[in-house]
Each structure stands twice: as structure tokens, then as C-alpha cells.
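Quality-control log, excerpt.
Job 1 of 2 completed; input and output follow.
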Amino acid sequence: MQPAPEQSPHHAYPDHWEADVVLRDGGTARIRPITTDDAERLVSFYEQVSDESKYYRFFAPYPRLSDRDVHRFTHHDYVDRVGLAVTVGGEFIATVRYDRIDERGRPASAPADQAEVAFLVQDAHQGRGVASALLEHIAAVARERGIRRFAAEVLPANNKMIKVFRDAGYTQRRSFEDGSVHLTLDLEPTAESLAVQRGREQRAEARSVQRLLAPGSVAVIGVGRTPGGVGRTVLRNLLGAGFTGRTYAVNRAFAADQATIDGVPAHRSIGEIDEPVDLAVVAVPADRVPEAVADCGEHGVQGLVVLSAGYAEWGAEGRERQRELVRQARSYGMRIIGPNAFGLINNAETVRLNASLAPEPPAPGRIGLFTQSGAIGIALLSGLYRRGAGLSTFISAGNRADISGNDFLQYWYEDPDTDVALLYLESLGNPRKFTRLARRTAAVKPVVVVKGARHSGSTPPGHAVPVSRIPDATVSALMRQAGVIRVDTVTEMVDAGLLLADQPLPAGPRVAILGNSESLGLLTYDACLAEGLRPRPPLDLTTAATPQDFRNALAEALADDGCDSVVVTAIPWVGEDGEAESGDGEVLAAALHTAAAAGPAKPVAVVHVEIGGLAEALAAATSTVAQPRPTPTPTPTPTQNPPAPAARTGSTTPPGPGPAPAAPLTGAPGTAPLAGAPGARNGRIPAYPAAERAVRALAEAVRYAQWRRQAAVPGKVPEFLDDTIDEPGTAGLIDTLLGPYPDPRGLQLTPDQARELLGRYGITVRPTLPAPGPDAAVAAAARLGYPVALKTTAPHLRHRADLGGVRLDLANETALRRAYGELTDLLGKPAELQPVVQSMAPRGVDTVVRATIDPAAGAVLSFGLAGAPSELLGDTAHRLVPATDRDAAELIRSIRAAPVLFGWRGAAPVDTASLEELLLRVSRLVDDHPEVVSIALEPVVVAAQGLTVLGASVRLSPPPARTDLGPRRLPNY
């Protein structure tokens, strides 16, 4: 909403303060600045507030607002006087206002940094978390305007408002003065305030999803009068699933006297339904959707599933239609799945909701599935159905204009019916938030992701996402850091999901292999080695083995303390008459089930070839209820063994010194162990038609289990760095370098400026001196001391020793002059080469440390070895900033060339402790100062003792917005 023309011209309307928020009960509301146009809305709002609430606000009976009050409460300068309103359906339901004051409580202007704040919430909307959301937003506005503290006077009886302030997590002081409670809140965000904010966000967004998944009533808008069509199909699926709530069919073309269709009450509009409607499935042409949304909003519908197409996937006009759809729905407090959605399913026995177009509804189970593609959704449902897997919930979000995978991660985090979360994503609308939510969810249950549209420029039509400059390999590494199991195909996702849902997590990488085919056992053995597992020699039971032989061998393998998991391989066995028997898979399945149920809790997977009925029998569950899972002792990890090349990124045994001792695997603190923690099986044993697929799924489980053990004891940013870091001095230097009017394109620092900036964080860069001629080179060497290096700094030759632009170990003037002549003769004139002289560093391994700010993912810390081979192979590891001590240790061990750092082929190991400290210092610098948008240290020579930074480049820019640290708000794409 824009201000009226008479609004003060000195401060423009701050439209960036507008935000859609999810409230405690899952409904949405809009927060925006109050303008002069809001006089009538304010009066109407005040008339609906109870006398008691008015008394709490004004400390006296105040039945109505005077004209002067209305003018004061609607005229703001958006600096010293600010008012925000919460609206639903365009009408106010709450307001908040601050007025800047001085130390004596009198009206003031900047630089006064305190303001008096007061709230008023309509009684009908109290208890929905409205005031808490308003406090977050008004505090962010105040900080933006230079206000550091809020003061509030609250009557002692106003317990609700006192609780809002007390629970916010800000540092506060309280006193009792003149019959009221005087509260002072410091508005600087704290760890507690951020935790409170994110906890409220999780509960609100989870509740908003729960309202969609467990409605008491559903109306299908667009049910055709004849069989067929989208709306009629959804209605049929609702009835077929046995939905436990009320169902209605809506079509404005129904005859006035038509009472039912397919046995369901028929209505021409939502407004004709006499009872509340919780969820509406919209299946009408796009041009009729706004009418349907308005009808739903006026009737109090809580959420929409919009199956209609014709939105952002159709270009610019459709994209604007999609934005308007979201704006319209949120204005009524509704959330949307879609548009262009496939629908949603909730298999809970108390709900039995199938509001989708799924031709094969899945059986109840423990897997939650989210997909952005209807076609992929159909394929996944079909694949899970064929393999006997069950789902707790299924959502196909289409263009995901509102509800996204992030919302369902919020829901699944505490959902007792979901043990494993599977997500097919084609875009990440909020990568920072996704990483944060995925890390928290993965700490209690597995999260498996397939990322479609991985290559630049291939974002699907209809998906508006932030621009990201980081490559897909970096995205994958960051997901791994967050504990996400990222796989390449939907087949791999189903394979991993089945194992994780049906089996306990392995305690380590040791695998026992047994079966009746030597060849299939060897294939499985090779696949294990390729995935970084530690297989034992396969046990060949011979083709004469009976189901009883399989049972005995499996029981023995599970009882063996030397293995953490078992892969059973099976081909048709030979009967008494010498003929191969391909049937009777049920007998073998029963034997394996018996052994697995009686043995210790270790994962079992079966690889089979042409054994009829085996997969189906193995998939038969004895229960779909989560069961207690005892915790095994994890496999000890060697701590001093030299590294070995990893066969696959994320290998279970990192090279070099091992990680911190692994903690036992448990569920969320204070809860029973969740799915994915080691323990009893649910009766299913996953079966695979190829050894490679089974082993890949098992390897993902091993890597995830290792991450869980490490995540149980999180790393930290070492405090000892604090006394060697000049944070205030660095901030002042950055302000000086950027100047009062920084160029939005950024500023590339000179080498001397970069050296000074990095030095304030304890990062020493070895100086270089220009050498525009041979005499200047000799003078520079005399100043630095021999031996020296001579190298070019021309952009096309920088860091390319392989092109001959570097001469090392020049011990005297003669050698230096000779090298200078060779360099210019070979590569060009000094003006082109821009030579420099630098003192020699101790010999070691050349590495590269970088940190960049990506607009979508945030700050990313990267590490790799220097040189063309590493760049060509993409052998670089990445972690999100701020990095912990554990992140730094894992970062240098996760590249494929890591063995070079730890004494490969008899070389002396280098000082990795110094390298880890350097990584932490760089991380701390970019985290403390978001104006530092890029750092590149290249090369960093790591010797047996210490390291030397030979080159550095730093880029500054005005700090990008940190939406992940601001008040809660829904994204607007």
C-alpha cells in the first residue's frame, strides 16, 4: 500500500517493511506500515477491541479515538515515529507504534537511540502469536533507524503483554514504577532471541502444513457434472481413500436443485455451504481461480490446493497472475499448495486424505515425500507402490508459489508418523533456510534429496528463485555438510529411502556379504570398495544352499561383532532334482525375516536375481508403527592411520587424523529414538535387482550415520582466536575503504590494502615488491633478502607456474638478472608481465583458500590444492560460514587429493593444524564483516611447520541483506 499524496516527502514509504507472516495457529497475516489512508481502518479496528484491552493500552478507560488520536496514529515520519499494522482481509487486527525518546522520556530525534513502544491486538486474535510477530518486525525497523533499546510501560495485570516481552529472548531489564511495570529491551539480536524466533517459525509453519494435511472438511471446486476431468477425479480419490472428514463438491454450473453428486453434497459456491470448510481443492481454469479464492476467503477456508495451470510456467503474464494469486490468498490468511500442483495425501488412519490425482494411492508407511513435479511424483508413487513401500504423507507442489519443501521440513521435523523425508527439488527458493532446516531435521531423521535442473539457466518455468553463482558441486557439498543425503536419480532416492525407513543405521562401514552365487558376491564386494566401504570376503553358500542355510548364515553374520551390516545375494537355487528353482521366494523371505528379527540390530539388504515373489515377501511389514531402537556402539575409527584416496566424496573414513570421538546415535533430545537410529526393524527388508544399487543405498546410510554421530557433538568456533582479532579496527578500516557513498559494484583492494585488512585478523601475507626492470628487481631482492622468487602478476599468467611465469630459489643477483631476462624473452615485456619479487617461503604443499558471498546460499568457505589439475577435476571442498573447528578439519580432509597433505608416498606430513586455524580466521572475518564479499588466498604454502600466504585478493561491497537473520516472513517470488 502506498501513502497518500500528503504523506511527508522527507521519508518515502518503506515498502521493504511489508511482510507476510505465518501466525501460531498456521494462518497468515500481513504486516505493513500504517499510512494516512488508514484512518477508517484504524477507527473500525479500535471499535472491535474490548474495553479491557483498551484499558491495558492507555491505562484508563478510553472508549473511542479522537480525531487528534487518529491523526497521530496514522501520520508517521518512518524514522522517529513508526506504526505497523497486522491485516487480514485488508482489515487491521493489531497495531504497534514506537516513538523515539531521550533519556528523560521526552520526544527526540537521532542520535537518541531509545524508543517507547506500545501494542494493541484485537481480542478475537489474541493468542495467535500476533504480538510476538509484531515485536520481531518493529524491532528490526527500529534497528534500521538507529534505535537500540525499547522502553515499555505495562500494567501488572496485563500478563499476556509482559509474557510477549519476557519470552522474546532479548536482553531486558524490569522495574516497578508508579503502579506499572517498566521494561527495557536491548534490541541487539542474541543467540536466545534468534532461537526463540526460529522456534516460533518452526511451530507456526508446521502448523500451517498440518492444517492442510489434516482438514476436518474438504471442498473440491470444479467437480464436473459428468465423469472424468480433474475435479471429478480428485473427488473420486477422496472418497476412495475413505476420508474421515466431510466432503463437498462445488461447481457454479450445478443446477439449483442438484443436491448431491457421487453421494457428496453439491453446491454452486463455497458460500452456500452451511458448515466450515478447512481445505479447498481448486480445479477450475486460471481465469476463474480469483473468484474461487475470494469465495473461499470470505467463507473462512484455511488452505488451498490449486491444481489449475496457466501461471508462471506460461511466461511473464502467468507469473504476474501467480503473484496475484498468492497475494489474494494470503490476504485472507490462507496458504497455497501450487498452482499447477498434483495434490497431497495423508495416510494417517485418523485422516485418510487423498486430495490428489494419483492413480495408484500408496499404502500407509513411514516415508514422507515432497516433489515439485507432478510427473516425477507419479513415477515415485508408482515405484514405491511396486516395491511395497508405504508413505505417511505425499505432496506435489507444482510451482510452489507459497508452500515449499522448507515448510514440509518444518512439519516432518516433529511428525511422529514420518521416519524418512524424501524430496525431489527443481529449485531452492531460500537456500540458506533450506540448509538450516535440513541440518536440524537430519539430526533426528534422514533427509534424502534429488536436485533436478542442476545446471545454470535450467530453472523450470514457474519457479522464481534467487540468482546463485555457486556451481552444483558446491550445492551438493553444502547439502552434505547439513547432513542431507543427496542422490542423483529418483531411483537412487527410492533405494536409499527404503533402506533408511526399514532398517537401523549401521554402526560403521564393515559389510558382511553372503549368498549362493560367487559371482554376485564378488560384484557386491567390488561395489562396496567403490563406495568406500570395508567389505569382508564374500561367503559363498553355493547354489545348493537352502533357505535354512541362508537363515543360519545371516544369523551368524549379524551376531559377528566384526561386521556392521549384511548384504545377502541370492539367485534361484538348485532343487533335489538338479533343476534351478526360481519360485518360492516366500520361503526364502521367511527365513531371512526370522534371522533378522532374532539377531542384533544391523541393517540387512538383499540383492536377488529372478526369484519370483521374493521382493514382495521381503517388503511385507509386520508393523508400520515406529519402534524403540537401542543404540549400538559405533565402529572405532582409526586416529593415526595415514590417509587413503577416497573412492567417493564423503568417504566414511576421512584421511589423516580421525574426527572427534563419535557420540552414540540418538533421536532428538528428550524424545524416544527416532527412525534412522539403530534398533529394531519394522519387518521389511529392502530388495534390489542389482548389487550396485543395494551397496550405494547402504553407503549413503553409512555416511549419514557417521554424520549423525559427529553432529551429536557439534564443533565450535575456537574462543582463543578472539584475542588475536581486531574486530572494531577492521570495521573502521572497511568503513574508510568503502567511504561514505560506497559503489554498489564493490571495491577490489590493492595488495597493500588487502594485506592490512587480513593482518587485523591474524592472517599474514608475505609482501611482494614491484620489479618493472632488472635493477628494480635487484633492489627489491636486497630489501627482502635472498633467496627470492620472481613471478609475473599479469591476469593471464597469475598462479600459472606451468606456463613458466615463476622463477624460484634465486640465490643471488646474477641468478635474478638471468631469470628476469629469460622471463621477458619468453613471455613478453615487463609492462605486460608486471613482475614482482617475493622472499622464498619454506617448501610445502601449495593450497588455495577462498571465501565468497553468494546472494542465495550466503557465505561459503572453500579449500583445495593449487594448480590446474585440481581446478580441472573440481577437487574443491566447501563449507558454510561460520565454520566450526570440526568443519575446518573436515574441509581439508574431504578433497580427493587430501593424502598429499598427510605424507603421501613417504613425503613429510604438513602442518594441517595451522591450515585449519587459517580457515577459521577467514571464516570469522567474512562472518564478522559482511562487507567482505570475496577473499582468495593463493597460494598458501603449507610446510611441515607453519604456512605462508603468498598472495591475497579481497573485494569489499556494501553488505547484502541477511534475510535469514531478520524477522520471520514468507518469501515473495
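Job 2 of 2 completed; input and output follow.
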Amino acid sequence: MLSTVPSGTGFQPTPEQLQVLQTASEFAYQVWQSRTGACQTFLRSYPLQSTLTRQQIDDLIQDYTLDENYQLANEDKVMIGLRHLRMLLMMRWIWQDALAVIELEQLTDELSEFADGCILFAKDYTYQQLMAQYGQPTFINAKGNVQVDDMAIMAMGKLGAHELNLSSDIDLIFVHQARGETDGDKEKGTRSIDNKRFMTRLGQGIIRLLDNNTADGFVFRVDMRLRPWGDGSDLAIHLSALQKYFAQHGRAWERFAWLKARVVGHIEQPFYDDIQALIKPFVFRYYVDYSAFSALREMKSLIQNQVAQREDLDNIKLGAGGIRDIEFIVQAFQLIYGGRHPQLQVKSCLAAMQALCQLEYLELSTYQELQAAYRFLRRLEHGIQAINDQQTQRLPHDTQWQHNLAVTLGFDDWAGLLATLNQHRYHVNVPFERMVTERQIPDQEDDELEPEQLNEQIARLNAVLTEENRALLQGFWQSKMVANLSDEARERLDDAYPVIVHALLIHEEQQQLANTALPRLITLLEAICRRSIYLVMIAENPNATVELIPMLSASPWIAKELAQYPVLLDTFLQQRYRHLPDKRELRDILRQQLLRVEPNDEEELLSVLRLFKKNQVLAVAASDVLAERPIMKVSDSLTYIAAVVLEAALERAFAEIVKRYGYPIGQDGDPVTEADCGFAIIGYGKLGGLELSYSSDLDLVFLHKIKEQGMTTGEKSVSGMKFAARLAQKLMTYLNTQTRDGRAYEVDMRLRPSGNAGMMVVSCHAFETYQLEKAWSWEHQALVRARAICGDKRVTARFCDIRRTVLALPRTIEQVRIEVTSMRIKMQKHLGTSQWQQQAGKFHLKQDAGGIVDIEFLAQFAVLAYSHEHPSLTKWSDNVRIFEEMATLGIWEAQVCQDLTDAYLRIRAATHQLALSEQSLLVDESLWTETRALVQAQWQHLMGVESAE
């Protein structure tokens, strides 16, 4: 019962009401205790039993951003005022929710209206400041007239649908009208800049006002990752670029995202109509959109795989039967049928659900169960987030807070809440599993997989297994681990076993290698039995399991990876290795996965980067085992994977450091941006030379074009040099840190200027000075194989210029020959085979004379010796194209270049196969006599000296 307060006094809650608040939220209760007077005054004006209108919210925002003279305050005071207002409103909303005096839709609507109001205030406030510096942004319209450019702020996700929860971040996309420039005038004290820069600063200003976490907290966390191209791209996009993106690059999962897109506030009608005319045909197709099914299947698979990987029953959003599953069901129907049924083109999940029921796409009972589950889960989500004002969907582990949460939601105890939660999850899981399903049917027409055939199959398998393997298999079934499995896991193992036996027998028939595969298969089964969802995958994918067994026998490396990281099994059972994605597809796959990671969840970010890399590398390995692709294509794929991981790591690291310190100043005097971050990653060695293998480390050098002495724009400001160093350190953390999922990559920074004694990141100018004045000749050799991987295009272009200049320095052929030969002899002494290994007839494919390093050194010799006269030789960093260029220029005979290329590719292919078989590069010399002799002969012919023995 709400207390009534006599007019003119502060709000006085009853002891029962205070107890409800204390039980529901540590955060809100602390706000009440520390600011009792302010809370009482606020709740007298805006009582708990009343609702808030948009006008009231706008008035509050205006009141809290005025100074003591009732004028618009400066930025610091505005930030304080907005944060204080949020604190009071959050206290009020949490209390209302705990007292059950506000409906779910009313609460999410008020939260969304407050977000809209804050966004529009921040936009207007920042716009006025920028206009005073640069004038108004303008462009020439289709009629040839000058027109003022405006920026539409697109609310995505929950905010777009007016479904914001108590601690939601807000997903935004900034869209402006066209390219152009501001009408700045030096005589009026303003300077002209292009619209892109103006809109970027407008966006940065909005984010700073709302997102910066100060001593008073934040207003809203702002997430910009849904914008076209995601992190690392321009903060604002103009209309024609958005149109081009939708037409050429828009993905099915982005149609999901734009389904909820809504313009915040009012913009001019023609601009609004232009935006809607782009979005509607992108999201909805007029005909029933069956083309979406395969993309939906991929998205569903991604969701299921993430659930299997996490086994996270505590997460009511991402766990099985959670909020995300409900949204997937509803949005999948909207995407497929929304073009034909305008009533499905709504943004709210509950409204869309109701329309689906009216159109009979959802049965009445399913609709009732889904909407009841959705309401319960959203209320539970609010209860969880209210405890500490945290953006989390995880059930509390602390028993006291479990009890408090149960009481707040009207349950007697935690067990009662969990029972209801599990019932709702079940009601969600059933329709989710039915969505766009595709269960495999075995290729065999016969009934070999029927349970009654299993005994006969096992007898046939025992007949082909060695005694040792029969004992191994028996030991597995009699092991403590199998005996201690839960009933569900044991049932799943029994269901999967006929499929496994069948696959082993087929492998024996085709390749006679069941005995090789079995020990590796048992290791894999031991790894997956306790995470029995993977056993379900095997049982439901008999054809793919038949394909899996040969992989295990062919490559102990693949078998070990799968046993160590069972989550990778999904890649195999989906047979994704049949199509190796190109760089653009890889970028898109990783971006989708990273969008499911909360911006501040570093642990999950590291996990996603590592599992993405392992999944994709494993797919390449499977393709390699099947011998479906030439060695160059395999290395290209491995190199693309590394480049995409580096790109994503740099984008996320940059965002993280900017959040802490603000933007550094670029060498042009302006702050850098997400798209031009002033930092780049350079790849050396195998990464630079496009020849990565399965366990290659990455040789990296970091360059920047940031004013080292200039201070960053944030409240906690640091020098540009410190910013660049912290960015490099954060990158290394993302890549190098050992987690339960391993490392993303081993990183080697020894090729940076001055090696281990040098700075971790240097300016382009310092890099150039070092290369021209201090670098050793072997460092110029290394530069031949260097290549810009990702980062600011201005920095990468500058690196390419420096590399070209350094490689084309005038050198005498004799001087290069002496230096390269000397370096080669040193390397072989340290890394080549020992005398007794040579006497035993062994040959190291990489380090010995006639091996791969000889061929690499010949390519480096060619570039350093001849680039001064033939600059086109500096274009490539990989050996194959360097030899091609040498042949084209006629410097070396075409046959010589072809022979070296063939030998190089032959040895490279062998090194890959040895890596997959977990064997050393030390091989029998007798198998390589001809190739080795050819390489040694060419070394002697081209270098004028005998290859080092």
C-alpha cells in the first residue's frame, strides 16, 4: 500500500515500503540513504503511484542541466546534472517495479522516453557548441541549392522498440544527409570542415555526454557496433553510403537489427522519408522470404553453439529458453512474412507476437506461453539489474540475494522462482527448436542405425579392431567417468554410439584406418561426455560423423584440438570446411559473434576471438586433409583469419582506451577518429609473406601517427605517446593472454626498431629514421616480407612509402650477396641439423641447405639487389610473386624462377602436412634429394657461392 503524503512535505515512505526497496536493490536503497532529502522532494513531485509523461521527462532534463543562474550549464555541470537525474529516476523506477505499481510496458516506455530525451538534448547541446566553432554543415541538394545537413539518430535494439530495461545500454547509428562542408567563416571566428568530420564530432559529443563514466556514474552506455562496417568505421554515415551498403554488403543478421530501427525525435520530412525508403525494402521483402531460411539457420546454429559452449543456465537472456530465443522466434517470422503483412512491421516484441497469433503463424497456446515467458523473463531481468544497477542477465549466486529476488518477484523462496523460470524456459525452447530446423537423414537407405542392429555392428567392429584397441574401448565403457554420467548424459551417449560405430565401420571399409582413429575418438568422447549436448550433435548428424572419423585418423593435430576444445566440433558436424570463407565473410562472421559480447566483458571478448580463430583454422585444416585446395589458398585462408582477428582486436582495444582517456591528437592537429585511429599493425615474417601455417606465431610491428606530446581529449588525459603504448599493451593482452581457450596467437615483437630494447610502438617518422640510418642489413631483408595488415589507412600508406624507399636504396649486387650469404651461414649454424643428424640421413626442410630458408633468402636477395633499378620488385612481400616479377622483368630466367617456385610450394605443402600429423620438419633426406639439389644448384648459380652445408 502506498503512503499518502500531506501537501508541502517530503515523501515519507512506510517502513514496509522501505523494506521492499532494501530487499529489491542495494543500489536504490543506498541512493535513498545517501540523498534522502533529494529523494523525498523528487518523489513528492513525481509520486510512486503516478506515471511520467514525455513532457515531464523533457522538463526534468531541462531543469537538471541549468546552472545556478537558470542558464544552460557548462559541459561538466550538464554531465553532473544528467547523472543525478538518472540516479533519482532509477531509484523511483526500481521502487515502483518492486512494489508492482508499474506495468512492464509502462516501465520500458518511460525508460525509453528518458533515453530519447537525453539523446536529443545531447545532440542539440553538442550541435550548438560545434556550430560556434565551425558554422553549420551544408550540402548541395539535387536542385543545386545549398541545404543544411542534419543527422538522424537511429535507435536500434531495445531502444528502437521502446523496450529498454533498467540497465540497458543503447544501440545507436548516426546517419546524415550528404557529403559537404560547414559554412565556417574565418572573419566570424569559425573555420570550415567537411561534414563527415562535423558529424563525427557531433556523435563523439553525444557519446561523451551520455556514456562517460564519471564520479557521478553514467547516463546510458552507448553501443555503436551495429553501424555499417561496425567498430573501426566512420561514426556517422551519409544516406548514399548507407544505400550502397544495404545493396552490396547488408547481411541477413543486419536485417534483424534494422527491424527495430527508429529515428529518435523529429527530423525534416523529406530526410525521414528517404531513410524509411532505404530501411523498409532492406528489412522486408514483398514475397514470402524463403531466402532468409538458410541465414536464419546459421543464426540459430550460432545461438545454439554459444549456449552449448557456455552451458550458462544462469543467463536468462542468452541461456537456452531465454529472452534471445523468444526474440529470435518472433523476428524470424517478421523477417519471412513481414513484407506481405504490414501488421508484422512493428518493433515491439509483444506487439509482433500478438500480430503473429492473429495471422495464425503462432498457435494461440504457443502465443500465450511465449508472451507469459517474455513478461516473466523481462520482470526477472529488471529484478536482477536492480540489485546493483548492473547490466547483467545472470541469476545471482549469493544466497541472500537469491532469496531477496524471489521475494521481490512474489515467490516464497528461490526454489519456487527457479521452478517457474524452468517452466517458462521449456515453453520457449520447444518452439525455438522447431524454428528453421534441418535434421540430417543418413545417406544409407538400410536400417543399419536402428538399435536392434547395434550388437551385430559392434561384433563387426570388434573383428577389425586390434586387441589393444578392443581393450581401450572396453576400458572406456567401464570407466568411472561413464559410470558417473547423469541419466540424461548416459542416454545421449547411448543414442550417439550406433552412429559412431557405423562411422568407424565405413572408415574401415574405405581406408582400413579404424584402428588409427579409435584411440583419438575415445579421447574426444571423454572430453564431450560431460558436455553431452555434443553427443546430441553426433546422434543428429550421422553423415557428418562419417566424415569426422577420417579427419581423426588423418591428423592427430585435428583430433587433439577437438578433444581440447569440444566447442569446435560444431564446425565439423556442420561441415563448414566445405566452403572456406574469404576475408570479407570472415570479417562478417567475427563481427556477428562479437556483437553478442557486452562492451565491458573482456573475458567473453577473449573467448570469442580465440574460438573464432580455432574454428576457422580447424576448418582450413580439414579442407587441407581432404586435399581440396592448393597450398597457396590454404595459406591465404590462414593469413586472412589472422588479419581479421587483428583488425577486430585493434578496433576493440582502441574503443577501450578511448573510453578511458579520450581521443589522442593526430599529427594534423585534430583528434583521431574510429575510422582514422592514427595506429596500424604491420605484419612481418609468415604473416607479411602470406604463408601462415597452423601454429605460426605473428611477427608484428606497431606504428602510429599521433602527436606524442599532445594530450588526449578525455577527462583523465594522457599524452599521445602513453595512449599509443597503452593501446599496444591492450592489443597484446587480447592476443597473447593464456585463457581456458588458449591464446589467440603467440606474438613476436622482436623485429621492431631496436628489437627487444626498443619501444613497443613507434611513430612513422621514427621508423623511417631507424630504417634509413640505423637498421642492419638483415632488418632490410625482414622488411622485404613486411606488409601493412590493418589500422589507419594514412599510417599504412606511409609505411608502404617507407618500405618502398628503403628497399629501393642503391646497393651493389656484390654487397647484398655478401650480407645475405653471411646471414644465411649464421642461421644455419644455429638452427640447421647437427653433424650426427646429417650422417643419419636427415634433412631439415626449413633450415638446412636446399631448404625453404634458402629459397626465401634468394627472394630477399633479388628485391634488395635489383629494386633500385626495378622499383616494381618492392610491390610484393611473398616469395611466389617476387619470383614471378623477376621472370617478367627478365632479370632471372623464367625457368629458374619457376623451378624455385615449384620447390618452394612443394616444401611448404610438406610442412603443412607434417604439422597436421604432429611430426618434425626433420625428414629423410633420401625423399628430398632432387628438390634439395635443385635449390642448392640455383643458390650457387645466383649467389655465386656454394650453399652452406
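Post-run check on job 2. The chain is about 60% helix and 5% strand.
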